[in-house]
Amino acid sequence: MSDINEIGSNQEHTLITTAIVTSFKSSYPLLRFIGILSFVCCGINILLGIGTLISGVYILDMFDHGTNIGVLGNEPAYTPVWLSGISSIIGGVIYFFPALFVYNFGTKLRDFSQTNSMPSLNLAFKNNKSLWKFVGILCIISTAGMILLLPVFVVLFLAISAIKG
Predict the structure, then answer these.
(1) CA-CA distance, 122 to 129, in Å (whole number)?
(2) Eight-class DSSP state of 93
(3) Domain residues for 64?
(4) Do 27 and 106 form a contact (C-beta atoms < 8 A)?
(5) Burial class (CB in 10 A: 0-12, 13-18, 19+), 61
(6) Is the pLDDT of residue 56 over 80?
(7) How many domains, the chain?
(8) Backbone phi, then psi, for 15, in 5-degree steps?
(9) Residues 4-52: pLDDT tens digits?
(10) Which among 89, 28, 27 is positioned nearest to 53, based on CA atoms?
(11) Which long-range contacts (CB under 8 A, 24 or more apart) does 76-80 make?
């Protein structure tokens, strides 16, 4: 058995070692499993968010009878529950895309390892690139958001402290 497999058309030759192909064959089941597990987590996250929105307000209203709480004493008691439910739904939607990229990466690696089809390998790594591009953009947005919101929270904290005396 040769250590190098030649894959591709006459115009495009790619040499892939047997170790790389073996690595692909052992990786794709785990990638697909992680993708499926991630889809399940997305669904659970979204369902928990919806459940929080539906039940949280009623439960708080049963016990608080509309009591106003919060930093300034005039926010409804269910505001944190509402924000928590929306955040959970948004998180589930955002988490869907990395799950999709990981699942597709594993599926295309499986296709490649079964057929030695170069387009399948190209699509696999296109999904891998999309995954890391999405993660990178999300990190940039999160970091920028934290940097921009920090002064807002400091000013808000100081204003509330001044109001409360």
Answers:
(1) 10
(2) H
(3) 4-164
(4) yes
(5) middle
(6) no
(7) 1
(8) -100, 125
(9) 555 554 555 667 888 888 898 899 999 999 999 999 999 999 999 999 8
(10) 89
(11) none
55, 132, 136 from 33: Cα distances, Å: 32, 18, 23
Who contacts 29 (Cβ-Cβ below 8 Å, separation ≥6)? 106, 110
Is-contact 128 105, C-beta < 8 A?
yes
Torsion of CA 13, 17, 21, 26, to 10 degrees: -160
- 69 token code pair: 């709480």
Question: How large is the angle between the packed helices 79-115 and 118-164, nearest 10 degrees?
Answer: 170
* Contacts of the segment 74-82: beta carbons below 8 A, 24+ positions apart: 81/52, 81/53, 81/56, 81/57, 82/53, 82/56, 82/57
